Amino acid sequence: MLEASARAGGKIGTESVAGYLVEQGPHAVLDRGVLAPLGASVGATFVPASATARRRFVFAKGRRQAASPLALLSSLISPAGTLRLLAEPLVAAHRPTHDESLRDFCVRHFGAEAGALAARVFCSGVYAGDESLLSVRAAFPRMAALDAAHRSLFVGALANRGREGPAAFGTFEGGLGTLSRLLAAALGEQLVVGAKVDAIVARDHGWSVAWSGRRANEVKTDAIVLAVPSDAASALLANVAPAASETLAGWESSSVVLVHVGVRLDALVQPPRGFGVIGADDSLGALGVIFSSSFLAGRAPTGHALFTVMLGGARAPELVEAPEPELIATAREALRRCAGLVRAPVFTRVIRQRRAIPQYTLGHAGRLLAADRALESLPPIALAGASFHGVSVGDAARSGEMAAEKVAAIS
Ligand SMILES: Cc1cc2nc3c(=O)[nH]c(=O)nc-3n(C[C@H](O)[C@H](O)[C@H](O)COP(=O)(O)OP(=O)(O)OC[C@H]3O[C@@H](n4cnc5c(N)ncnc54)[C@H](O)[C@@H]3O)c2cc1C
Q1: How far apart are CA 267 and CA 344, in angstroms?
Q2: Ligand 1 close to Cβ of residue 397 (< 6 A)
Q3: DSSP SS3 for 294
Q4: Is 312 in the pocket of ligand 1 (CB under 6 A)?
Q5: For labelling, which of 309, 311, 334, 345 has a CA lying 20 to 30 Å from the CA of 283?
Q6: pLDDT tens digits for range 44-69
Q7: pTM higher than 0.90, yes or no?
């Protein structure tokens, strides 16, 4: 395993600073039976989030609302919009044959008013993207499958209740970084960090892989799993598979900034309770806020709370390069609005994640198929990671397993 940066884990990483435990990317995972066993295999203990994580909020029209259907309907949607939303099972939703955007899909099901709100909330919370550009089939396959099977999402959700396997929401003891740290340790010398792969060449039914860095070298291998973002995969395939390289070039990604803010509990009107807040319009001034210490243990010293304010995304891409004082001021203002912060923070840490969240824009599934096909004539090679089959940590891990199975089967 060759990793370009100085440590394994990519977007995942946890650091302990001044008594706060801060994540540099993902905070918690929804595990459907992949991550907890993977962690257990290397001694990382999965810790479910506290029950308070079920309390979620939406910020719209300048106010924080509980993300419960009743609260949202009564405060954010007009009576006519509510009627249209409730009529979803009755309104014959015409399913288009073309790839449909998340926004069009939500409007088709829930009406213009509730649909636009729902699309923005789903999109901000996961992709920090633009809901009118995302392909619902690629970005939210479960919703697309409900639509295909039941026409109505309400009916489909009811019919599927209790049918999906159990899912656990949580992290690992010591933060998500524990998972990547212990996986890296288990690999021992099979993992080379600081090794940026520069070239892959098909040779003798296998591959030759060359990398630069302190321990620059070249190895021969039977198969390759390219577990890198789409633009890195495109660059590596330029000479060996020009058609695949071209298909993978220029895929969109959102940049985000995480501003971790530590405060004394007496700096808040009320201590935070819940998972956090998603901005459903521009009135929060942030993509969202995670109440990190409220649902994850050991995140802040006693008497303090830790928040993580998410800024940037497709709507404000310039923020990823904004000066730190500006980012902290924006985060403070968002916390004043949604969490009742009335005094200065005692701790801040800014983490910039450039081109970090892949955007499954319209046509994604077709492009992926074309890239996979263009790789078929080569020695065993497969794509894995968040650019391709789902952006969550669990999806990325599952895609790694699938890619390994695929190359093993044809090797
Ligand atoms: C701010 C943020 C919050 C998120 N929150 C959540 C969350 O709460 N829950 C959740 O499930 N998901 C979340 N995600 C998504 C999830 O974290 C990522 O999609 C996932 O971790 C990506 O894993 P990956 O291995 O596909 O890619 P990456 O983590 O990007 O890893 C790719 C690796 O490839 C290496 N690499 C690239 N080019 C080369 C090369 N030429 N040679 C060698 N190595 C190379 C890179 O250095 C990197 O280490 C979040 C993402 C972000 C950015």
Answers
A1: 7
A2: no
A3: helix
A4: no
A5: 345
A6: 999 999 999 999 999 999 999 998 87
A7: yes
